[in-house]
Design goal:
With 258 residues, the protein is α/β, with parallel strands linked by helices. It is built from nine helices and ten strands. The protein folds into two domains: 177 residues, P-loop containing nucleotide triphosphate hydrolases (Rossmann fold, 3-Layer(aba) Sandwich), CATH 3.40.50.300; 75 residues, no CATH class. The strands form two sheets. Strands 6-7-8-3-9-10 form a six-stranded mixed beta sheet, with helices on both faces. The protein has a four-stranded antiparallel beta sheet with strand order 2-1-4-5, with helices on one face. Strand 9 and strand 10 form a beta hairpin. Helix 3 packs parallel to helix 5. Bound molecules: adenosine-5'-diphosphate and magnesium ion. The site of magnesium ion has 2 residues, from helix 1.
């Protein structure tokens, strides 16, 4: 039996004024799989995410989502096709409570429009959604007053409101304390077990990468230099060279921290 292909990148390339940010990057993500995209700063990870999510168009190459060519489709169309993307909580939500934001996201996912004045009703489903990401106690808290880690949880809840079958996360653990980051990884593991959602994420923290990913892709200067299991990636001399090079400059280490 062959697993369903959720997402396929086909020779994706992107240049910025002559700089080759992404060069002929191809990979496949299968149903239920968790794939990590790693690489030093400036390797092209965020650019790759933008091409996959539709925030930016590639110079050449294709993006397939659940077997459909979505290269020229908008972000909204990709979301409707089952792609979720975590995003920074927009400013408009700062004075809204977490419960209201969750209610709004659920309503938007259901194709309903909202009156944007007065208090929003916070239905049971919105509270359940917050509960699911460990924010059960924060329904009444204004989004702008949430701690950084809790904002990230809310961000995840808003993405999950759409019921995606694939979730893209660009550095979901950025700025989090190690304890918060571990809690986020546990949350993602629980989501995966619950819904079989496929995940693609970038992350600097190697503990999170090696603890969560089924498979790892390594980018260096826009090119995919390695792809394999966490054990294979850890042992790969080319990957070690890239990371040891960075380590000499005070960058991240490849060994997961104890
Ligand atoms: N909008 C842009 N305009 C010009 N250069 C960009 C732009 N976005 C990214 N770059 C450049 O492309 C390269 C890859 O960046 P990025 O995808 O953000 O890498 P990463 O996320 O791996 O750190 C970097 O050299 C960066 O400076
Ligand atoms: Mg980046």
């Amino acid at each position: 039996m062959t697993a369903e292909v959720v997402l396929a990148a086909e020779a994706l390339s992107k240049r910025f004024n002559g700089l080759e940010a992404l060069a002929e990057v191809s990979f496949t993500l299968y149903a239920g799989e968790t794939l990590a995209l790693i690489g030093p700063n400036g390797a092209g990870k965020t650019t790759c995410f933008k091409l996959l999510s539709g925030e930016m168009a590639p110079d050449s190459g294709k993006v397939h989502l659940f077997g459909r060519d979505v290269t020229r489709k908008s972000m909204a169309e990709r979301v409707r096709a089952g792609m979720g993307r975590s995003f920074q909580v927009p400013g408009v939500f700062a004075s809204m409570t977490a419960g209201e934001a969750a209610a709004l996201a659920l309503a938007a996912a259901g194709g309903k429009s909202f009156r944007m004045w007065g208090r929003l009703e916070v239905p049971e489903a919105a509270l359940a959604l917050l509960e699911r990401v460990g924010l059960g106690g924060a329904a009444e808290t204004p989004c702008g007053r949430l701690a950084h880690g809790d904002r990230k949880r809310l961000d995840l809840a808003l993405a999950l409101a759409q019921g995606p079958r694939l979730l893209l996360m660009d550095e979901p653990g950025a700025g989090m304390a190690p304890g918060e980051r571990r809690a986020l990884a546990a949350l993602l593991r629980a989501e995966r077990a619950r819904s079989g959602i496929a995940l693609l994420f970038t992350e600097h923290d190697m503990e999170a990468v090696f603890g969560l990913a089924d498979r790892i892709l390594v980018l260096d200067r826009g090119r995919l230099i390695a792809e394999g299991s966490p054990a294979a990636i850890r042992a790969d001399p080319r990957v070690r060279a890239v990371y040891l090079g960075e380590e000499a400059g005070g960058g991240v280490g490849l060994q997961p921290k104890p």
